[in-house]
Amino acid sequence: MEPWQDPNAEPYIQIESISKKYGSVEAVRNVSLSIYKGELFSLLGGSGCGKSSLLRVLAGFETPTSGRVLVDGVDITDKPPYERPVNMMFQSYALFPHMTVYKNIAFGLKQESLPKSVIYERVMESLELIQMTQFANRKPQQLSGGQRQRVALARSIVKRPKLLLLDEPLAALDKRLREQTQFELVNIQERVGITFILVTHDQEEAMTMSSRMAIMEDGRIRQVGAPHDVYEFPNSRFVAEFIGSMNIFDGVVVEEAQDHVIVDSPEAGCSILTTHVGAIPIGANVSVAIRPEKVMMSKTPPAEGRNCTKGIVREIAYLGDISIYYVELSSGKHIQSSLPNLLRLSERNVKWDDEVYLFWRAENGVLLTV
Q: Which residues, 6+ apart, have CB-to-CB distance to 121 below 8 Å?
């Protein structure tokens, strides 16, 4: 059982009804979150959703308009940044260019006037953790982007904070290095055991690294959950469309039972059977969401009539490992089907302008009422 699933587990970080206004603009709106010790928790959302403002409140750079923040049971809402058991790793890394790697990491410890032997021991321990012991005497400009990122991380964790805040920490790296560094960061976080809160607009980054994630929109939390739960079971149309690609059909409930719902959707061109737990009245306007990778495609009709529609292939996007087929239905709606490239594209029997059948299993549809 994960700690957030245990009703007896005590949260390590408690964000209680935090709001933050800048003049008449409310950047954060009554946000409450419980984060547990050792989590790598992500705040994910588009530009202007409030995630960075919330991070700055946690760091102490901004005072909340209302609400409070507790770390390990201690209220830190009114404490200045230097008195909080919190450290922050900035997107720009903010390394001192005139200092060596060793001195950059040691800077915060020297400010606390710790003995030289303690400083040396902690810095070398941090350098070993990020596998950069041999670079101790180099200057930041002599390092690659990924190496500078690791030095910034070591400087952030060397003071052993209770909470580490990361503001878009991988944004400056190229795609390949970013993917590699994601796993390095997760491994380091697991080894040091510090609770991380990561702010990002990169969905793949949040999905790869997080124990849990919160989706933010317009200063509010729309959904909190483990990455697979948010992806497979979005609780609203906004979350469904924000995380990954999604086919969404609007329709009306025509049959409702204990374990399933049937939705009539003219734009889908078929009746949609989806598994669902919870009462929804007949006649209710709903949406059914299906991920492109759940949509199967064939040039011959399947045996089952429900959850099956047909259309014309208008576009094929070849992405190497997968191909995405954009199919236009008779209603004019375009939907996507993504298929693994087990065969070369030239060997596929489905081409542009082919008529195809699209179908999916009942358990792959997600019923959305909001």
A: none
